[in-house]
Protein backbone atom coordinates (compact mmCIF):
# COMPACT_ATOMS: atom_id res chain seq x y z
CA UNK A 1 0.00 0.00 0.00
CA UNK A 2 1.34 3.44 -0.94
CA UNK A 3 2.05 6.27 1.50
CA UNK A 4 -1.04 7.89 2.96
CA UNK A 5 -0.99 11.63 3.61
CA UNK A 6 -1.99 13.15 6.97
CA UNK A 7 -5.12 14.61 5.36
CA UNK A 8 -6.11 11.20 4.01
CA UNK A 9 -5.48 9.63 7.39
CA UNK A 10 -7.67 12.25 9.09
CA UNK A 11 -10.42 11.59 6.53
CA UNK A 12 -10.14 7.85 7.09
CA UNK A 13 -10.39 8.37 10.83
CA UNK A 14 -13.58 10.43 10.41
CA UNK A 15 -15.06 7.79 8.09
CA UNK A 16 -14.14 5.06 10.53
CA UNK A 17 -15.68 6.92 13.47
CA UNK A 18 -18.86 7.38 11.43
CA UNK A 19 -18.85 3.67 10.61
CA UNK A 20 -18.64 2.72 14.28
CA UNK A 21 -21.06 5.42 15.46
CA UNK A 22 -23.73 5.06 12.78
CA UNK A 23 -23.43 2.18 10.35
CA UNK A 24 -22.48 -0.59 12.77
CA UNK A 25 -25.47 0.04 15.11
CA UNK A 26 -27.77 0.33 12.09
CA UNK A 27 -26.62 -2.96 10.57
CA UNK A 28 -26.78 -4.79 13.90
CA UNK A 29 -30.33 -3.51 14.40
CA UNK A 30 -31.21 -4.83 10.93
CA UNK A 31 -29.71 -8.22 11.77
CA UNK A 32 -31.65 -8.41 15.05
CA UNK A 33 -34.88 -7.54 13.24
CA UNK A 34 -34.26 -10.19 10.57
CA UNK A 35 -33.52 -12.84 13.20
CA UNK A 36 -36.64 -11.93 15.17
CA UNK A 37 -38.77 -12.16 12.04
CA UNK A 38 -37.21 -15.47 11.03
CA UNK A 39 -37.69 -16.88 14.54
CA UNK A 40 -41.35 -15.83 14.52
CA UNK A 41 -41.93 -17.91 11.38
CA UNK A 42 -40.54 -21.11 12.90
CA UNK A 43 -43.18 -23.68 13.88
CA UNK A 44 -41.28 -24.35 17.14
CA UNK A 45 -39.96 -21.97 19.83
CA UNK A 46 -36.62 -20.28 19.11
CA UNK A 47 -35.32 -19.35 22.54
CA UNK A 48 -37.74 -16.80 23.96
CA UNK A 49 -39.29 -16.15 20.57
CA UNK A 50 -42.83 -17.54 20.20
CA UNK A 51 -42.20 -19.65 23.33
CA UNK A 52 -45.83 -19.41 24.45
CA UNK A 53 -47.31 -20.18 21.05
CA UNK A 54 -48.41 -23.75 20.37
CA UNK A 55 -46.58 -25.60 17.59
CA UNK A 56 -47.95 -24.63 14.19
CA UNK A 57 -49.62 -27.33 12.12
CA UNK A 58 -50.07 -27.47 8.34
CA UNK A 59 -51.22 -30.11 5.88
CA UNK A 60 -49.32 -30.71 2.64
CA UNK A 61 -49.78 -32.87 -0.43
CA UNK A 62 -46.52 -34.20 -1.87
CA UNK A 63 -46.90 -34.68 -5.58
CA UNK A 64 -45.26 -37.03 -8.03
CA UNK A 65 -46.51 -39.30 -10.79
CA UNK A 66 -49.06 -41.93 -9.88
CA UNK A 67 -46.27 -43.91 -8.18
CA UNK A 68 -46.33 -41.86 -4.98
CA UNK A 69 -49.26 -40.22 -3.25
CA UNK A 70 -48.47 -38.66 0.11
CA UNK A 71 -50.52 -36.39 2.37
CA UNK A 72 -48.76 -35.21 5.52
CA UNK A 73 -49.53 -33.04 8.52
CA UNK A 74 -46.47 -31.11 9.67
CA UNK A 75 -46.74 -30.04 13.31
CA UNK A 76 -43.80 -28.21 14.81
CA UNK A 77 -40.65 -30.16 13.98
CA UNK A 78 -42.42 -33.45 13.21
CA UNK A 79 -44.76 -35.13 10.77
CA UNK A 80 -47.63 -35.87 13.10
CA UNK A 81 -49.72 -37.72 10.53
CA UNK A 82 -49.24 -39.09 7.03
CA UNK A 83 -51.14 -41.11 4.46
CA UNK A 84 -48.65 -42.82 2.13
CA UNK A 85 -49.55 -44.78 -0.98
CA UNK A 86 -46.80 -46.42 -3.05
CA UNK A 87 -46.99 -48.17 -6.40
CA UNK A 88 -43.61 -49.71 -7.08
CA UNK A 89 -42.94 -51.46 -10.40
CA UNK A 90 -41.38 -54.94 -10.36
CA UNK A 91 -39.62 -56.59 -13.30
CA UNK A 92 -41.59 -59.39 -14.92
CA UNK A 93 -44.46 -58.98 -12.48
CA UNK A 94 -47.33 -56.84 -11.36
CA UNK A 95 -46.71 -53.55 -9.59
CA UNK A 96 -46.38 -53.79 -5.80
CA UNK A 97 -48.79 -51.61 -3.85
CA UNK A 98 -47.97 -50.47 -0.31
CA UNK A 99 -50.14 -48.31 1.92
CA UNK A 100 -48.84 -47.05 5.22
CA UNK A 101 -49.04 -44.04 7.49
CA UNK A 102 -47.48 -42.24 10.43
CA UNK A 103 -48.79 -43.01 13.90
CA UNK A 104 -50.14 -40.02 15.81
CA UNK A 105 -48.55 -41.23 19.03
CA UNK A 106 -45.13 -41.67 17.39
CA UNK A 107 -44.53 -38.80 14.93
CA UNK A 108 -41.74 -38.69 12.35
CA UNK A 109 -39.23 -36.16 13.66
CA UNK A 110 -37.58 -33.69 11.29
CA UNK A 111 -34.40 -33.00 13.23
CA UNK A 112 -33.40 -30.33 10.68
CA UNK A 113 -36.09 -27.98 12.02
CA UNK A 114 -34.87 -28.18 15.61
CA UNK A 115 -31.22 -27.93 14.54
CA UNK A 116 -31.97 -24.76 12.55
CA UNK A 117 -33.96 -23.33 15.47
CA UNK A 118 -31.05 -23.96 17.85
CA UNK A 119 -28.55 -22.19 15.56
CA UNK A 120 -30.94 -19.27 15.05
CA UNK A 121 -31.34 -19.02 18.82
CA UNK A 122 -27.55 -18.81 19.17
CA UNK A 123 -27.42 -16.03 16.56
CA UNK A 124 -30.18 -14.17 18.41
CA UNK A 125 -28.36 -14.45 21.74
CA UNK A 126 -25.08 -13.30 20.18
CA UNK A 127 -26.68 -10.21 18.64
CA UNK A 128 -28.49 -9.42 21.88
CA UNK A 129 -25.22 -9.41 23.84
CA UNK A 130 -24.17 -6.10 22.28
CA UNK A 131 -26.76 -3.32 22.39
CA UNK A 132 -27.01 -0.39 20.01
CA UNK A 133 -24.90 1.75 22.37
CA UNK A 134 -22.06 -0.73 22.80
CA UNK A 135 -18.76 1.15 22.16
CA UNK A 136 -16.91 -1.07 19.69
CA UNK A 137 -13.27 0.02 19.81
CA UNK A 138 -11.83 -1.42 16.60
CA UNK A 139 -12.63 -2.92 13.23
CA UNK A 140 -11.24 -6.25 14.43
CA UNK A 141 -13.67 -6.28 17.38
CA UNK A 142 -16.68 -5.67 15.16
CA UNK A 143 -15.50 -8.22 12.61
CA UNK A 144 -15.07 -10.91 15.28
CA UNK A 145 -18.55 -10.17 16.67
CA UNK A 146 -20.12 -10.26 13.20
CA UNK A 147 -18.34 -13.50 12.33
CA UNK A 148 -19.75 -15.26 15.40
CA UNK A 149 -23.31 -14.16 14.64
CA UNK A 150 -23.06 -14.87 10.91
CA UNK A 151 -21.58 -18.33 11.45
CA UNK A 152 -24.61 -19.22 13.58
CA UNK A 153 -26.93 -17.90 10.85
CA UNK A 154 -25.02 -19.87 8.22
CA UNK A 155 -25.40 -23.06 10.24
CA UNK A 156 -29.14 -22.42 10.58
CA UNK A 157 -29.46 -22.04 6.82
CA UNK A 158 -27.32 -25.10 6.14
CA UNK A 159 -29.47 -27.22 8.48
CA UNK A 160 -32.53 -26.47 6.32
CA UNK A 161 -30.83 -26.55 2.92
CA UNK A 162 -28.49 -29.55 3.19
CA UNK A 163 -29.98 -32.72 4.70
CA UNK A 164 -27.57 -35.12 6.35
CA UNK A 165 -26.68 -38.08 4.16
CA UNK A 166 -27.72 -41.48 5.52
CA UNK A 167 -27.01 -44.97 4.30
CA UNK A 168 -29.81 -47.35 3.39
CA UNK A 169 -29.03 -49.34 6.54
CA UNK A 170 -29.49 -46.18 8.62
CA UNK A 171 -32.78 -45.40 6.88
CA UNK A 172 -34.16 -48.89 7.43
CA UNK A 173 -33.12 -48.97 11.10
CA UNK A 174 -34.12 -45.38 11.88
CA UNK A 175 -36.42 -44.91 14.85
CA UNK A 176 -38.67 -42.88 12.57
CA UNK A 177 -39.50 -46.05 10.63
CA UNK A 178 -41.30 -47.28 13.74
CA UNK A 179 -43.83 -44.51 13.11
CA UNK A 180 -45.06 -46.29 9.97
CA UNK A 181 -48.15 -48.49 10.38
CA UNK A 182 -48.35 -50.97 8.81
CA UNK A 183 -44.58 -51.41 8.38
CA UNK A 184 -43.04 -51.52 4.92
CA UNK A 185 -41.17 -54.57 3.62
CA UNK A 186 -37.42 -54.66 4.12
CA UNK A 187 -36.74 -54.04 0.43
CA UNK A 188 -38.34 -50.59 0.73
CA UNK A 189 -36.65 -47.71 2.59
CA UNK A 190 -38.26 -44.28 2.93
CA UNK A 191 -37.25 -40.89 4.24
CA UNK A 192 -38.75 -37.46 4.89
CA UNK A 193 -36.38 -34.49 4.84
CA UNK A 194 -36.13 -30.79 4.04
CA UNK A 195 -34.01 -29.51 1.17
CA UNK A 196 -34.18 -25.74 0.82
CA UNK A 197 -37.85 -24.75 0.78
CA UNK A 198 -39.08 -28.25 -0.13
CA UNK A 199 -40.30 -31.12 2.00
CA UNK A 200 -39.25 -34.32 0.24
CA UNK A 201 -40.45 -37.89 0.62
CA UNK A 202 -37.93 -40.30 -0.91
CA UNK A 203 -38.43 -44.01 -1.57
CA UNK A 204 -35.61 -46.49 -2.17
CA UNK A 205 -36.82 -49.79 -3.62
CA UNK A 206 -34.50 -52.77 -3.98
CA UNK A 207 -35.24 -54.63 -7.18
CA UNK A 208 -33.68 -57.96 -8.19
CA UNK A 209 -33.67 -58.72 -11.90
CA UNK A 210 -31.91 -61.79 -13.31
CA UNK A 211 -29.86 -62.18 -10.15
CA UNK A 212 -28.69 -58.57 -10.13
CA UNK A 213 -29.94 -56.23 -7.37
CA UNK A 214 -30.34 -52.48 -7.68
CA UNK A 215 -32.11 -49.67 -5.85
CA UNK A 216 -34.65 -47.55 -7.68
CA UNK A 217 -35.36 -44.15 -6.20
CA UNK A 218 -38.64 -42.24 -6.33
CA UNK A 219 -39.42 -38.83 -4.90
CA UNK A 220 -42.43 -36.66 -4.08
CA UNK A 221 -42.18 -33.12 -2.80
CA UNK A 222 -44.00 -29.93 -1.85
CA UNK A 223 -43.12 -26.35 -0.98
CA UNK A 224 -43.12 -25.39 2.71
CA UNK A 225 -43.80 -21.62 2.77
CA UNK A 226 -42.36 -20.85 6.19
CA UNK A 227 -39.03 -22.48 5.28
CA UNK A 228 -38.86 -20.36 2.13
CA UNK A 229 -39.51 -17.20 4.19
CA UNK A 230 -36.89 -18.11 6.79
CA UNK A 231 -34.23 -18.86 4.19
CA UNK A 232 -34.89 -15.52 2.48
CA UNK A 233 -34.56 -13.62 5.77
CA UNK A 234 -31.37 -15.43 6.74
CA UNK A 235 -29.85 -14.91 3.29
CA UNK A 236 -30.57 -11.17 3.38
CA UNK A 237 -29.11 -10.96 6.91
CA UNK A 238 -25.94 -12.75 5.80
CA UNK A 239 -25.56 -10.44 2.80
CA UNK A 240 -26.05 -7.37 5.01
CA UNK A 241 -23.49 -8.58 7.52
CA UNK A 242 -21.00 -9.42 4.78
CA UNK A 243 -21.29 -5.94 3.27
CA UNK A 244 -20.38 -4.41 6.62
CA UNK A 245 -17.54 -6.87 7.09
CA UNK A 246 -16.15 -5.94 3.65
CA UNK A 247 -16.09 -2.25 4.65
CA UNK A 248 -14.33 -3.10 7.89
CA UNK A 249 -11.72 -5.08 5.96
CA UNK A 250 -10.85 -1.94 3.98
CA UNK A 251 -10.10 -0.05 7.19
CA UNK A 252 -8.13 -3.00 8.50
CA UNK A 253 -5.71 -2.50 5.62
CA UNK A 254 -4.66 0.83 7.12
CA UNK A 255 -4.00 -0.47 10.64
CA UNK A 256 -0.24 0.11 10.25
CA UNK A 257 -0.71 3.74 9.23
CA UNK A 258 -3.65 4.72 11.45
CA UNK A 259 -4.89 3.52 14.81
CA UNK A 260 -8.57 3.44 13.87
CA UNK A 261 -9.68 2.80 17.40
CA UNK A 262 -11.29 4.65 20.25
CA UNK A 263 -8.73 4.28 22.98
CA UNK A 264 -8.06 8.04 23.11
CA UNK A 265 -11.80 8.81 23.15
CA UNK A 266 -12.30 6.38 26.01
CA UNK A 267 -9.76 8.34 28.10
CA UNK A 268 -11.41 11.73 27.49
Distance between the termini: 32 Å
Number of strands: 9
Secondary structure category: alpha+beta
Q: What does the main sheet amount to? A: 6 strands, antiparallel
Total number of helical segments?
A: 6
Structural domains: how many: 1
Order of helices and strands: HEEEEEHHHEEEEHH
As residue ranges, the low-confidence spans are 262-268
Strand fraction equals: 25-35%
What is the typical, i.e. mean, pLDDT? 87
Helical residues, percent: 40-55%
Please tell me what the overall shape is.
elongated
Rg over C-alpha atoms, rounded to the nearest angstrom: 26 Å
Please describe the topology of this protein.
Layout: H1 6-41, E1 57-62, E2 68-75, E3 78-88, E4 96-102, E5 108-109, H2 111-128, H3 139-161, H4 168-173, E6 180-181, E7 188-195, E8 198-209, E9 212-223, H5 225-252, H6 263-267
Antiparallel strand pairs: 1-2, 2-3, 3-4, 3-5, 4-6, 7-8, 8-9
Helix pairs in contact: 1-2, 1-5, 2-3, 3-5
